């Protein structure tokens, strides 16, 4: 990891892949990841960790399946939201967005339980940022 400041705009400009996070830095045992997203991700669950989202650009929707039913939260640019562990959710960005996520290193982008992973979804634990 870099010991210099990392301009997020430059980092985001260094890749084009959608739903394919880049690890910007680490904080203790957590990855700080950025991603470009557009269209739908998949329904998935992280059994043992919460998932933090910060919208850097655009607008992100997150559908949630909760005990009281299904709902969708809308995150405009600058908004943050944490999906609680064990909550089935599906992020999507109809017009595209750039997001920052904070989660334990090694966390898969498709969670521990998920629908079938389509070809356009990169289901890794994040890629090293190459700027």
Automatic annotation (TrEMBL):
Residues forming the Cupin type-2 domain are 35-97
Pfam families reported in the protein's UniProt record: Cupin_2
**Domain of life (superkingdom):** Bacteria
Q: What is this protein called?
A: Cupin
Question: Which organism is this protein's natural source?
Answer: Streptomyces hiroshimensis
